[in-house]
Amino acid sequence: MTKPRRLWRAMLYVPANVPRFVEKAPKAGADAVVLDLEDSVPHDRKLEARAGLAEAIAIAGSGGGDVLVRVNRPMRLAVGDIEAAARGGAQGILLTKVLGLDHVRLAAEILAETERHPMAIVPMIETAAAVQQTEAIAASHPRVAGLLVGAEDLALECGAASDDELIVMAKRRAVLACVAAGISPFGTLGTVADYRDPDAVRALALRSRRSGFVGATCIHPALVAVLREAFSPTPAELDLARRQLAVAAEAAKEGRGSFTVDGLMVDEPILIRARRLLAAAGEDVASG
Question: Which of 18, 199, 236, 271 sits in a 20 to 30 Å window from 104, CA-based?
Answer without folding.
Answer: 18
